[in-house]
């Protein structure tokens, strides 16, 4: 299937989750959930194992954004790094970063 904004928005939810794959882009697809939620996915192999990386949800992540993220992930893969693991580590660090609440508490303790 050739992806365009029109073809992506026309995908309808079914009783079970399904995926459509873009022709010419190795591993780039979109997963459609029964709720109608659409998520961009990248299927690849790393160390002989099949891996799946979620690139974001449509329409928050546009088709152009998905293409750029897919290209970046493929570059990381070509350099010998697992792009999915790097994304998980980055999200974990973001969740553990200091919040405004933490900074306010620290400020109040100091001053």
Summarize the structure.
With 111 residues, this protein is of the alpha+beta class.
Task: Explain how this protein is built.
With 111 residues, the protein is α+β, with helices and mostly antiparallel strands. Helix content is 42%, strand content 25%. The protein is built from four helices and four strands; from the N terminus they run H-E-E-E-E-H-H-H. It has helices at 5-10, 63-78, 83-96, 100-110, and strands spanning 18-21, 28-32, 38-46, 49-58. The protein has a four-stranded antiparallel beta sheet.
Topology:
Blueprint: H1 5-10, E1 18-21, E2 28-32, E3 38-46, E4 49-58, H2 63-78, H3 83-96, H4 100-110
Antiparallel strand pairs: 1-2, 2-3, 3-4
Instruction: Provide the helix percentage.
Output: 40-55%
Mean pLDDT: 89
Strand residues, percent: 25-35%
* Overall radius of gyration: 18 Å
Side by side, the strands of the main sheet go 1-2-3-4
Number of strands: 4
Shape: extended
The ordered string of helix (H) and strand (E) elements is HEEEEHHH
Q: Uncertain segments of ≥5 residues (pLDDT<50)?
A: none
Number of helices: 4
Q: Please state the structural category.
A: alpha+beta
How far is the N terminus from the C terminus?
61 Å
The major sheet is characterized as:
4 strands, antiparallel
């Amino acid at each position: 299937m050739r992806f365009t904004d029109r073809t992506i928005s026309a995908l309808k939810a079914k009783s079970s989750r399904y995926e459509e794959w873009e022709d010419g882009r190795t591993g780039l697809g979109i997963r459609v959930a029964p709720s109608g939620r659409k998520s961009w996915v990248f299927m690849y192999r790393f160390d002989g194992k099949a891996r799946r990386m979620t690139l974001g949800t449509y329409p928050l992540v546009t088709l152009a954004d998905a293409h750029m993220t897919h290209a970046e992930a493929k570059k990381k893969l070509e350099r010998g790094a697992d792009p999915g693991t790097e994304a998980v580590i980055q999200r974990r660090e973001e969740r553990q970063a200091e919040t405004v609440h933490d900074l306010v508490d620290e400020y109040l303790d100091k001053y």
